[in-house]
Amino acid sequence: MRCCRIYVLLSTLALSLSLGRPKTSKRPNVVVYMADDLGVGEVNQQSPEWAPYDHDLYSSIKSQLIIHTPGLERLARGGVRMTRSYTSSPVCGPARYALMSGIPTGKSPMRANRIFDDARDFPLNESQPNMARLLKSHGYNTYHVGKWGLGHAKSTGAPWKQGFDHYFGFLTHSEAHRIFPAYLWKYPADTRLGYEKVAYPQNYKASEEKCVCVMNRTCDLDPTTGLYQKSKNCANSSQKFRLKALEYIEDGHAKNRKNNGATPFFLYWATTTPHNGFYNPLTRPKMRLLTSPVSTFGRYASLMNSYRKERIGHMAAITHDLDQDIVALLDKLQALNILDDTIIVFMSDNGPHKQLGKDRRYNPHFFHATMGLRGLKRDVYEGGIRSPTMIHWPAKIAAGTVSSAPHVQYDMLLTIAGLIGINPNDPSLRPFQSIGGVSFHNAIVASSRRSFSREWMHIEICEAMVINPYHGCDYAFFDLRDPRKFFKLVRKSYRTMLFELNSDPKERNDLFYSDSATFYRTWNYFVRGKFRSDYCPLSTIECRLRGRTHTKFPTHKPTQSPTTGRPTQSPVPTTRGPTTSPTLRPTGAPTKFPTRRPTNEPTKRPTRPTKRPTERPTTRPSQAPSRRPSAEPTTRPTNGPSAVPSKQPSAKPTRIPTLAPSQVPTTPFPSVSPTTGIPSTSPSAAPSFAPTFPTPIPTKQPTDGPTAQPSWTPTESPSAYPSSTPTEGPTARPSESPTSPTKRPSESPTGRPTGRPTWRPTRRPTRRRKK
After folding, report:
1. End-to-end CA distance of the chain
2. 185 and 270: one domain?
3. Under a CB-based contact definition with an 8 Å cutoff, are residues 349 and 35 in contact?
4. pLDDT for the residue 107
């Protein structure tokens, strides 16, 4: 009996302890899907709410063809649509770097595409904290499929060196342009290096005849989508990525079940569509149209009547093919019964491309790709940096909701960390919490739905091979301190503008001209906040001009107008290029005359003395003598002699000879300047008793005494005074009047008359002719 009582007590105690122990919450799976060059208006256009600021959207899309995207419709209506979502950069590389690292592009070491060359992208640092490493440290199995672009196989940025357990896809940007690749990278592999190239020999000579299935002919069906096979004899990268992603999901789910939900999976799926839809691998410069991956156009078959419409049909079909990835993803998660336990984040790396193909016959505005917003890819305007972001998690996020929480893709790392339940005080989050990113997970989770506010956002793109390097860095800075306003400061090709997006979503009204006080208030906040750093590690232009100004890019020409002490303002705003006159607004690029300290505002005090005269006097004496006479006498002696004679005679001797003749007769000695110590070179008004230097200019009137040297030119009339030196012969012309006897007879007669005076006296006297 006693033993039974002890057993009952122990059982009750064990049950109470098990009930009192908190249950370990299972973390959800995470899938991040990134499209390539997908415009914000190319998906889900059936709903005018997708563009709440464009009031004419519904009427305009009725006259345009809408791309059919049922998968994205299903994703958006089952989750939350983010209407204030921005990419980290308007080009691929910097946007993907910021997404993985959580570093804002204003302080990122990668702010441009193709910094080295096509085959070597800028790699992630060997010890760089990133999203894959963070999730792996919290028990996730990590997978990556598709476009990487952050380091080649032998660099420190290879995906298997950055926290990914499995990888399959393109490593560099140049490889990602091939829809029919000759090879793809795979990790892990049974090789010495641990990775390998998966070759596709059938793609070595890819062509439209070989790879593309022709309409109305026998084509195989895609086993995943049930549509026509996208290539009949070639390996299509989009299809390979889709099949490998579904394989990774099955593998991650199996490992998670084996570990009782303790090891969920993280899948980073980076497709290359619609960007690479028109590229041929071996004839890339031609960019042949019919190398599109889609062989059937379905509802877009009516667009095949002309070449331009054929291009539009391909674009619509490629985007529809991207949508099939989402359909396959949702179906796979639902089949495994893990759809409610998986967070799906859909986004695009930047806005739509300006053209697809060398002929430029596709207009991205045909499908309302930017919702009428200004700008495209590589622009920091809204059309180039807005992303069609959607987040789907049925367990925590209410279906069909819309969030206007402003965010940039470098915020996604902390947001995912908040969604999966990582404590904000966890040491693994410290590298990401002090660099500018924030978490907005409380603004979208149904249980909290708290208001979300932040003070600023920053997006940047710097010089690259496809952009004029002298344009420097273009950026968009958002001033969100006032919750009623949405100010956006745009720096685009030397020009700085300010827009208020709540009232001006298409960025047409520059507040610099209508509200300059707000402009300078936002500008000062941006400059003093130091939200960006100089971009020098890989930019040759900035490195050569390092340490001069805030943004290290010179203007084409410095200003040629003299400064007046106050800036001027042009009445007509410039459209492109630098101006040749000083402006009221600060420029983002330095002039050729560097200042002592970098400044971001127009100067109000005089700067260093210039060599050109100013209209207003300076506050400090000049270090060099002026080239112009002073209008007023100075109070202190000058540092050096003046180049221009003074207006009033000076009581002290000058250091240079005077230009006017002296009014005082000279002494019997040669005139010597007391300042210079050299004889005077100008004629005297009074006769001198000592020989002077010969003057190259004949005197206007005869002197009272003999000169020491003869004149340069013969006189027209006989001299009234006898010559002080005898000549060697007769003069050039006969004398009409008797000459006076010479003081010194010549030693010998001359042989013939000379036409010019001699410098030496004759040794023999001349004989006088008889009349």
Report:
1. 183
2. yes
3. yes
4. 85
* Beta partners for residue 267, in sequence order: 31, 143
Is residue 39 within 8 A of residue 370, CB to CB? The reply is yes
pLDDT at 611: 58
Can you give 270-339 as a three-state secondary structure string? EEEEECCCCCCCCCHHHCCHHHCCCCCCHHHHHHCCCHHHHHHHHHHHHHHHHHHHHHHHHHHHHHCCCC
Q: Give the whole-angstrom CA distance, residue 469 versus residue 111.
A: 13
Last residue of one domain, picked from the residues 432, 455, 478 = 455
Name 86's Cβ contacts closer than 8 Å, sequence gap at least 6.
385, 386, 387, 406, 407, 408, 409, 457, 459
**Pair type for strands 265-274 and 196-199:** unpaired
Same domain, 380 and 501: no
CA 499 and chain centroid, separation: 20
Which is nearest to 680 in space by CA: 663, 698, 693?
A: 693
In a domain, 701, yes or no: no
- Residue keyed to tokens 């006076």: 740
SS3 call for 499: strand
Output the pTM of the full model: 0.65
What values do phi and psi take at 12, rounded to 5? -65, -40
* Residue 87 in tokens: 């990419």
Tokens 């930017």 belong to which residue?
370
Query: What is the pairing mode between strands 342-348 and 166-170?
Result: unpaired
The answer to whether 511 and 499 have CB atoms below 8 angstroms apart is yes
**Do the domain assignments include residue 763?**
no
Claim to verify: residue 251 and residue 168 sit in the same structural domain? yes
- With respect to residue 651, please indicate whether it lies within any of the assigned structural domains: no
The predicted pLDDT at position 148 comes to 93
Sheet holding 166-170, edge to edge: 196-199, 183-187, 166-170, 141-147, 265-274, 29-36, 342-348, 390-392, 80-82, 401-403
Do residue 432 and residue 534 come from a single domain? no
Q: What is the CATH number of the domain that holds 40?
A: 3.40.720.10
Is the distance from CB of 572 to CB of 145 less than 8 angstroms? no
Could you tell me if 93 and 110 are in contact, meaning their C-beta atoms sit under 8 angstroms apart? yes
CA 602 – CA 498 distance, rounded (Å): 17
Do 265 and 348 lie in one domain? The reply is yes
Residue at which a domain ends, from 426, 455, 484: 455
Same domain, 430 and 496: no
Mean pLDDT for each 10-residue chunk of the chain (771 residues)? Answer: 48 44 69 91 56 40 59 88 91 91 87 60 85 96 95 91 95 81 91 91 72 53 49 76 96 95 96 67 38 38 45 68 90 96 94 61 68 86 91 94 92 96 94 91 80 88 58 86 94 88 93 94 92 64 44 34 40 41 51 51 57 58 59 60 58 60 52 50 53 55 56 55 54 49 49 53 56 49
Give the pLDDT confidence score for residue 317 in this predicted structure: 67
pLDDT score of 706: 56
As for how many domains the chain has, the answer is: 2
pLDDT score recorded for residue 720: 57
Query: Of 123, 51, 121, 115, nearest to 81 (Cα)?
Result: 51
For residue 519, the enclosing domain spans: 468-560+577-594
Could you tell me if 499 and 359 lie in one domain? no
Does any domain span residue 706?
no
Backbone φ and ψ of 160, nearest 5°: -75, -10
Strand (E) or helix (H) holding 529: helix 516-529
Token pair recorded at residue 434: 């002090």
pLDDT at residue number 542? 45
CA-wise closest residue to 300 among 126, 64, 623? 64
Residues 281 and 355 in one domain: yes
- pLDDT of 606 reads 56
